[in-house]
Write a structure and sequence with these properties.
Strand order of the largest sheet: 1-8-7-6-5-4-3-2
Structural class: alpha/beta
Oligomer: single chain
Number of strands: 8
Shape: globular
CATH topology: TIM Barrel
């Protein structure tokens, strides 16, 4: 039912994705004790900054952020699980809580989505399970003096992603979003795990993939151009392929044009609120971001639009207001999903 609703909505209009989770969490100025809650009160390692565990220790804050984005006009919110793998959580000594972390994160987002769908049945809201890149890379060495070294293997990544996926799916995710892909081999491990879980559970959910062009070279961190990134993943029946993070809307435009021309899937974009200033902060206003995203809309480049670092419900509101006046990018004739 949800799959049908999603595909119907994509044919009719441009769908709006939410904005940054970390930016919104920072506004709460939470302490180490807030992050720990009762559950991790005596945990031996510092936990401040581990935003994902707030789904367990401060669920009301996370749910309210989801609500704010839905209220701003988002059709889809992402779960608070960007670092929800044992690989990423090992830094905090929390690699054993993964199923619960992902399950609760999806459940919180789903509850918020259902609240808004009930209020507007003609505008169903969706939950995308956020599957981040982890903090390790399968195709590059972290040691310049040992180029053959790998900090993690494909199989280790696939196992970690599978743990995450089971929690997200059981918690109610409608879509799986493999995002901020800087190493395509990591993404392939996530997609391998997704296929395994789909077979084991005898289910099928829409899959979104979003890559990250790291700088003006126009390449991902692992060295792929936008077209190479697309070709590497086109064997999968994806719902959409797109770009997020690292770049502002203006800088992302030429790479989205490539996806628009060549992608046999829907195209998504969730750029940052500009480029970081000298303090590492994003200060592009909602109005300016809206103007830049109107270029995407005028060129008919996208089907799903949202925001990444530095974006807030005000940014998403401005983006949603612009997007509602435009038709979505036409579905390619060779659409695979």
């Amino acid at each position: 039912m949800k799959n049908e609703q999603l595909l119907k909505a994509l044919k009719e209009r441009i769908l709006v994705l939410d904005g940054a989770m970390g930016t919104m969490i920072q506004q709460h100025q939470l302490s180490e004790e807030d992050f720990r809650g009762e559950r991790f009160k005596n945990h031996p390692q510092p936990l401040k900054g581990n935003n994902d565990i707030l789904s367990l220790t401060k669920p009301e804050i996370i749910k309210e952020i989801h609500r704010q984005y839905f209220n701003a006009g988002a059709d889809i919110v992402e779960t608070n699980t960007f670092s929800g793998t044992s690989v990423a959580q090992a830094d905090y000594g929390l690699q054993d809580i993964l199923y619960d972390l992902n399950y609760q994160s999806a459940k919180i987002a789903k509850e918020a989505a259902e609240e808004f769908t009930k209020l507007q049945p003609d505008k169903p809201r969706f939950v995308a399970g956020s599957i981040g890149p982890t903090n390790k890379t399968a195709s590059m060495s972290p040691d310049v003096n040992n180029p053959g070294f790998r900090a993690i293997s494909f199989d280790e990544l696939a196992t970690a992603y599978k743990e995450q996926l089971l929690g997200l799916i059981d918690g109610g995710a409608d879509i799986l979003l493999v995002e901020t892909v800087f190493d395509t081999l990591n993404a392939k491990a996530a997609l391998f795990a997704i296929n395994e879980v789909f077979e084991e559970k005898n289910i099928q959910l829409p899959i979104m993939v979003s890559g990250t062009i790291t700088d003006n070279s126009g390449r991902t961190l692992s060295g792929q151009t936008t077209e190479a990134f697309l070709i590497s993943l086109s064997h999968m029946p994806l719902l959409s392929i797109g770009l997020n993070c690292a770049l502002g809307a203006k800088q992302m435009l030429p790479y989205l044009q490539i996806l628009n021309e060549k992608a046999p899937f829907y195209v998504s974009a969730h750029p940052n609120a500009g480029l970081p200033n000298q303090f590492g902060e994003y200060d592009e206003t909602p109005e300016l971001m809206q103007q830049q995203i109107k270029e995407y809309l005028d060129l008919n480049l996208i089907n799903i639009i949202g925001g990444c670092c530095g974006t807030t419900p005000e940014h998403i509101k401005a983006i949603a207001q612009a997007a509602k006046n435009y038709s979505p990018r036409p579905l390619p004739e060779n659409f695979l999903a």
